[in-house]
Records
---
Amino acid sequence: MGTDRAQVLPAPRVRAAGHRRLGVTAWRLIALGMILGAWHVASIPAGALLLPSPLAVAPQFVALLRSGELLAATASSLTVLFSGYSLAILTGVSLGVLMGGIRPFGETLEIFVHAMNSTPRVAFIPLIVLWFGLGIKAKVVIVWLTAVFPILINTYVGVQNTDWGLIEAARSFGARQSQVFRHIMLPSALPYVVTGLRIGAALAVIGTVVAELYTALTGLGHLLALFGNTFQTAKYFVPVVTLLLIGTAISESLKALERRAARWKSTTVEF
Amino acid sequence: MTTIPKIDVRAVGKWFGRGDQGQAAGIEVLRDVTFAVMPGEFVCLVGPSGCGKTTLLRMMSGLIPIDRGQILIDGTRPPVPGPHAGFVFQSYRLLPWRTVLDNVRFPLEIQGKDAAEQRQRAATYIRMVGLAGFEQRYPHELSGGMQQRVGLARALAMGPEILFMDEPFAALDAQTREFMQIALSRIWEANRVTVVFVTHSLDEALFLADRVILMRPRPGAVEEVLAVPLPRPRWTYDFHARSEFVALRAHLWERIRRMVADQPEFAWLLGGPGDDEAHGQLRPV
């Protein structure tokens, strides 16, 4: 027993990782300060029209927040974003699982999925407008189309890469096909799926803005167009910063999910 | 009165490749294999690579179909995977996302046992393989020997009548391997399940088995069946010093050497006509 203890990884490693991450947070704040500083310095020769200082953007941010304009636009954008993204998760994961689980089905569809994935999605926007109009329906479809493929492909690859030995082991214990699916293929694909979700989320944010600019102007896209076209540059930075914040928030929360999903992997023994 | 064999292998044949029915298209892996394993017996399958030991084990457990002949469990039913037969694999095959406890519970979960029973039985067998206190660890946190003990606990927790073991200790270092052999013998002495154990190691086979089945390759077939008449428990005395062990080992080794010498890729190694030239080519300088 005493010798066995020595053979497992020492526990303190977890705490060490925690310490290191605190350090990273501090460094990130310093880096942010430096970026804002550089931005401010660059804004002095550039002038308020070309590049307003962050000190000029901040009051505009507060003003737009107070007037309710920013919140309404953000709410509208988030509605489009999450509707399209949820739809992409639902369809991407289900189809990916089916393709990975049923070999001939996956092999048949694979080439079409990759064809769609490598075609610029903007090319489909006129068609989508033709079919779905300029309203929220068209926007959700655009977001869905932008985000669905990385989710689908990652899920497919994840299910496909399931260790064959584990499947055979489960079968040797008498597992039915449905149990192999649920207990072996799905958990084994989970880290891949979450990675797909993260890539998909980043694309969904892009898709949302593209949709808002290419169809009826709404949400943060509307603010971008409004302030951009009227050269209110300080105000223009407000929706830009908001999009940055949304993207970061989504990506960070999915990163946390990714760590949890892969916590059984030897390379990520941190909490 | 004769006892019904636990596993009755009768004239079994197997082909791999396109034509499972015809020699022309595929490779014949096993030909006319016949032997019986009695209830509570510990049988080891040994033989050079390519003699179809693992294939035979898979067929006996019902994981792959039988092309010729038949295998009967308890004299009546064909082999079907399930809780009556536990499988222990060379590469452990633990679910990496599950803890030790949840891995051992897994087959019981598949069978639909209630959660309390799953826990209780898993805990019992984890204790039996000496891993109490490691229930919440993940496989990657354990050494190879410990992982394979989880594999053993998982197979035993189902309460199997037969245990199939496919070179379970081959990936372990020599010392851990010896320790595992003793651990397995101890557990077997207490449980007396029927065991079919595939190994390349003659020492391992003789230490563990009641009978050793020696197989020959291309196509795989039974060459010889040897009883190991040494008293149990075998870890209580210097097993490897016993004259019976030495004689059996020498006999098996000689038989395998001859089989392998027939194969051109090994002939140069083991001596035989015309090997001087090969030696000359391989020697550096």
Note: The longest helix of chain A spans residues 177-214.
---
Amino acid sequence: MSDLISILQENLPKIQDENQKASLQNAIQLGVPSMKNEEWKYTYYNKILQQGFKPVLVADQHVNMFKMMGSLTVEKEFIDEYSVSENRIVFVNGVFHSELSSFINHPQINLWNTNNVSENITSDFLLELNNAFASDGIFLEIGDHVVVNDLIEIFYIHTKSSDIIQLKNKIIVGKNSQVKLAEYYINYDEAPAYLNIVTEMQVAENAHTELYKIQDGGKVFNITDNTFVKQDKSSVCTVNTISLTGGITRNILQFDVNGERAETHMNGLYLLENEEHVDNRTLVNHNVANCESNELYKGILGGKSTGVFNGKIVVKQAAQKTNAFQSNRNLLLSNDANIYTKPQLEIFADDVKCSHGATSSQIEDSELFYLQARGIGKEVARGLLVYAFAAEVVENIKNELLRNKLQERIAELLKIEL
Amino acid sequence: MLQIKNLHASISSDSGAKEILKGLSLEVNAGEVHAIMGPNGTGKSTLAAVLTGKEGYDITEGTVEFEGKNLMDLSPEERAQQGLFLAFQYPVEIPGVSNANFLKAAVNEIRKSKGMDNIPPNEFLKLMREKMELVEMSKDFISRFVNHGYSGGEKKRNEIFQMAMLDPKLAILDETDSGLDIDALRIVANGVNKLRTKENAFVVITHYQRLLDYIIPDFVHVMYDGKIVKSGDKDLALELEEKGYDWIKELSNVEI
């Protein structure tokens, strides 16, 4: 039996809440994900656990009081580096931090920080673990007919914690409303950190939502991100998952499209080097007719990095006239980098348009030579070409301020000046 | 400026090495425009590729000096930094990189090689605007991606624009006239003529005499089977147009 399971068992008697208890029991029963599980074939979960992370109940949490009350210079720096808005929700090591946060006052926008205990029992270890241990999270409810122009930013900042930090968010977007959210995943220390986060989002009729996940936590930051979206009719939802730096990252992104004429967009970019690992698993359930989904994930893999892409599209029998497009393109910069890509289409309706494609390529010599012939050294030339490869995904980011920030950051990572 | 002596170069392929340049000699001095003409497959583009340092060619014999330096010792970017420029026959599309960013990188890399600081942004924009006028580019060109989705004419104009931005000592124009309509040809030629000075030089590689009505060369060389078989002044181009390349083939046979 693994160490983690025995820790879970020790915690079982301490839990009062029935739902949390049930989740924990379920997690113990399910066991730690192993590579024998098809879903975990290329991601070795134990590699995160081996770094010594342990789940901690809210009651037992050792909140770093110095961090909560003392100097916040470093946190502020990181926030300033990315922030493009005045709507800001900040969590430090899994705990909401009011001093760093600021938020608009609007009669139709409700925001709490809470751990949102769920009553649903799932068959996913990480979801159950999260339900049993989640320390905090946002509950954001946006009423009907509300347009929020400024980006709502959520910062998950981590520093020197051997806890498995667990957050649980719930976002409800009302009819005809429009909202844009950006999540920033940050760990600013040399010490490893691990965040297991669950976000549920409901997008009501004719609502428009954009969600940006900016994962730039440094080489020793591990993330298991689990995002579930339910869309009602005529809604538009875009999720951009941008993984720039990290340790082991696994992004689960699932959509249930339950209303007709809804649009779903998924954009992904992963920029990997050294031994970085990103596993993106997306699922779109087209449950009703006349909907559209678009998916573009691009990866750049250098060093000994590993990328995993699993894109599943399910078109139910009722979902006639579905248009579903998926593309995963990879640029391999080294012989030791690996990409495992798997498109999965399950189509039960007969009148649909679905396409998928996956490619992996290398930098073209002819392109490299063209840049060199203009006096650009090989390193910068490669950087520019990689930047060009990534640009398509970045261009899809509608928020201009955020797009500019990302362009700057990507250029910095590629050591080019723009 | 450029001295090529008895240059032999071969290309390696699956079926072994194949010699393309078979003893080519050429001297280009500052202030001169040289035209190199000749039928397809005689090694004109190989010459351009070898001079700019494209991979895949082996120099088996001969020397190339540029401003007194052995050109073959230099990487492609070092050659460009020294003032050598190639206007590509098939310019490469780079979706995702704007013309401004591409050229800023080029200008700054060249400045860096000379120990200079980056060009100030205002100065760079001013330079871009000034040179865009030269090749009649519209304003949106600055932010458009490099060659992405351009017409053939636009791509060639962009090559001349880049040349204007980088202000090389020696520019090699590889079939810049191919695929151009008469208006684009005029714009391209105008650009070149305005950039001609006593200090710089041009090597214009072309299949047709047409371009040389606009860019008047000081010397015309005819290439056949990997070397220059005949040199003369601009009248040679006209003679060639009149008599056709078969005349050169015969000429070449006689010499052998």
Note: DSSP finds eight helices and twelve strands in chain B.
